[in-house]
Design brief:
Elements: H1 19-27, H2 31-50, H3 55-82, H4 97-123, H5 129-159, H6 165-193, H7 204-207, H8 212-227, H9 239-267
Helix pairs in contact: 2-3, 2-4, 3-5, 4-5, 4-6, 4-8, 8-9
The structure holds fe (ii) ion (2 copies).
Length: 270
């Protein structure tokens, strides 16, 4: 709550974009889904917060609801400013504990990938700095949300008497698996929604040189950097970063073996 910042995206200096940046922005397929998620979460969280008996936790939940709704308003400003074609159908969600928990685990999965994608996009200058710098706050707020969520859920399970590590670990693993499943389904929906041909050439210079290892390294590096900013007494989300580290170790081992085999194949006399 102390790190909450007050700002209004409608008052931001949204930059003028050149034709390539505008075409790239329009080609990004996630704006409809992102707007639905943020606006739906803002409403669900606001109503869920009202049910929380602890006044301090209620205020923190309300604040997150306000920030999610503001993420929706940031996207709406961008959509309007740059004439993006977006047809949101904001799902009505029951403001239950289960809905907040599902949303929290979704954020834990999305954020780590989002940290990496945002870093790579900034480094590759996919969009002008004047635009990406506006979204830095959103990324930092998502980092705060996932740290808040994992601490909230540990606290909530403890107040329900589910203290033991096994009683904590089983629902955590189940919830992460469900969140990953929802994201795989969401990815499939994004692909089926994509009616126009994917304008890959718009991003050709960005995709050039991008490897899976580079992406995973960006996710982990940025996750560690954002997480280091929080009070050391707070719990951090651990499972997704651990899975990414394992995936990175496997990808690096495969790359190493491929490089070693191709070197020995080149050196062996035929
Ligand atoms: Fe958000
Ligand atoms: Fe969030």
């Amino acid at each position: 709550m102390e790190s909450h910042e007050s700002y209004d995206p409608a008052a931001w200096a949204w930059p003028q974009l050149d034709d390539l940046s505008l075409a790239r922005l329009r080609a990004v397929p996630i704006w409809t889904l992102a707007l639905e998620v943020e606006l739906g979460a803002g409403e669900m969280l606001g109503k869920f917060a009202a049910k929380e008996p602890d006044p301090l936790v209620r205020e923190a939940l309300e604040l997150q609801g306000f920030e999610e709704d503001r993420h929706g308003r940031i996207l709406s400003c961008m959509i309007e400013r740059y004439g993006l074609i977006v047809k949101p159908d904001v799902p009505k969600q029951n403001p239950t504990r289960g809905a907040f928990i599902d949303f929290g685990y979704n954020e834990c999965v999305d954020s780590v990938a989002g940290f990496g994608i945002f870093r790579l996009a900034c480094d590759a200058r996919v969009f002008p700095v004047a635009l990406t710098s506006l979204f830095q706050r959103v990324i930092e707020e998502e980092a705060r949300h996932i740290v808040f969520f994992v601490n909230w859920i540990a606290w909530d399970r403890t107040r329900r008497g589910l203290r033991g590590p096994i009683l904590q670990a089983i629902p955590v693993l189940y919830s992460y698996a469900a969140a990953i499943g929802r994201r795989i389904k969401g990815g499939a929906r994004l692909q089926s929604d994509q009616t126009e041909e994917q304008p890959l050439d718009l991003f050709a210079d960005v995709v050039n040189g991008l490897t899976l290892a580079k992406f995973l390294r960006a996710c982990i590096g940025e996750n560690d950097r954002y997480m280091a900013a929080f009070d050391p007494r707070l719990i951090r989300p651990r499972l997704i970063p651990a899975l990414i580290r394992v995936a990175l170790a496997i990808v690096e081992a495969i790359d190493f073996l491929q490089a070693a085999f191709s070197k020995s194949a080149r050196q062996s006399p035929t």
